[in-house]
Amino acid sequence: MALSPFRRHQMHVNALISGTIVAATTTAAPEEPAPDTPQGQEYAALRVLLHENLRQLQDIASHEARVPKKREFAAAFTPWIEGVLEAGEAGQAAQDEILLVNMIWAIDYRDIDYALKIGAHAVRHNLVMPAPFTRTVACFLAEDIATVALATAEAVTHAQLLALLDLVTGRDMPDPVMAKLHKAIGRSFRAMADAFDPTADSAPSGGKAAYLSAAIEHFARALALDKNAGVKKDIERAQTELKKAAPSDPDQAPTE
Question: What does pTM read for this prediction?
Answer without folding.
Answer: 0.86
